[in-house]
Amino acid sequence: MTIKELQDLKAQALEINDTIYELKKAENRTMTEKEEAIVAMNNQKMKEYDLELDTEFRKAGTSHYVGPLIKIGKEEDQFSLIKSIRAQLNHKELPGLTRDLSIVGRQQFMESGNNATGEIVIPNYEQRAEVNVQGSATEGKEILALEKKAILPPLLPRLVFSQAGVTYMPGLVGNVSIPSYAGTAVAWKDEVEASGDGGGAFSEVTFAPKRLTAFVNVSKTFLAQDGVGAESLLLSNIADAVAHKLEATILGGATLSSKFPSGIGYKLNNANNSGKAVLKTTGITYAAMVGLETAVDVANALDGNLAYITNGVARGILKIKDKGTSNDTGDFIMSEDNKMNGYPVLVTNSITSGYGASPADGNMVCFGNWRDLCIAQWGGYDITVDPYTAAKTNQIVIVINCYFDAKGLRGVTGSASTLDEYALSFAALSIA
Fold it and tell me: In angstroms, how far is CA 80 from the centroid of its own chain?
């Protein structure tokens, strides 16, 4: 079975046990013999699933174990960020479950080579398997439920890159170098002619943690809520803030920096951008769009997860632009099923209308093999509660710090004038 299948089976066993515990608690009774047998059987199954998961994770080169063993004690509540923030604002001790989770979160940061300075540190459960817990069914049941899903909504599905099929590497430790191979040279020779050195050139793409910080303003009235909906909304807003900033940066036009990843749109705004000139509305042609595919093809990167990514404005332009030079074919560049030349077109408004040789020239359209875009993450989410900055509007500011990097796996590094970290696998133009 796959890791996902094993995790699903374990989650199902946990859910059955949770239902029995809740029913017993609601009816204020002890478990029946049948219920005890079911719980015991599920506990045994989960042990077996853990052994299989350990084996599969080792095969994949990662660890099933993510932190120290935790004994939670008799904690009655599920994790609540709202209650944890209220405790901080009232200068009270954090709930026990929050403290225990923060221990795991800080351990993740330490292992990654970074430090978490906030009082609340949420571990990243997208990266590996579950937290191992010591204790009986009444000592640790609540944190066991966290094995079913991450505390923060998963990051990747919130990015357009999820649809595109990018490579996501969470749970990293220190700087990471991924080898890139230029290929092997093969040639025809005479019967006794000496063979040449056929070894291709190796290079490395290095990823280093860069601090991404985002913030969410929350009213004190909202923090007074105890409902599941309010908790879910707050966690969702935090995940959205991180995802939006990450997506806008990767698809942006920023140049090389030690503070953040460079953007795929950088070359469109660079004076040295030969061969990728800005196209205005009147200059858009079907041939120009196919030219993006050709640029990737001649670099031998036309395989994997191929797609276009653009924004809503460009999609509207492409849907009404005829393929023919005389606008007389009735066949538009972008079809009604949101495809161009057979490839899907994905849309995100994280792409601005500021790409090109002049300020605010146009909207980027990028084509490429998105499997060659790698997003790396170190540790989880460090949360600081700031009650002062927005106090006059009766709000508190939740500041989130996390560490990411992103590059093309076949990119070319260099100074600002030669940088193209998304070379070979991606090509882009700007339309207005």
Answer: 23
Which tokens in the block code for residue 394?
A: 């009766």
- E-assigned strand segments in 33-94: 70-71
Q: Which residues does 320 contact at the CB level (< 8 Å), separation at least 6?
A: 332
| The two structure tokens encoding residue 314 | 């460009």
Bigger pLDDT: 426 vs 281: 426
CA–CA dist 150, 134 (Å, integer): 20
What pLDDT does 182 receive? Answer: 47
363-369 and 373-386 strand pairing: unpaired
Amino acid 88 reads Q
Task: Look up residue 393 and give its two tokens.
Answer: 């509007």
pLDDT tens for residues 60-96? 544 443 333 333 333 445 788 999 999 999 989 898 8
Quote the radius of gyration of the chain (alpha carbons, Å): 26
Sign for the pseudo-dihedral over CA of 310, 314, 315, 319: negative
pLDDT higher than threshold 50 for residue 152: yes
What CA–CA distance (Å, rounded) separates 411 from 426?
9
Over residues 301-312, mean pLDDT: 92
Find out whether 364 and 265 touch, Cβ atoms under 8 Å.
yes
- Residue 386 near residue 397 (C-beta atoms within 8 A): yes
Global pTM value: 0.71
CA distances from 259 to 100, 265, 372, 412 (A): 31, 17, 22, 18
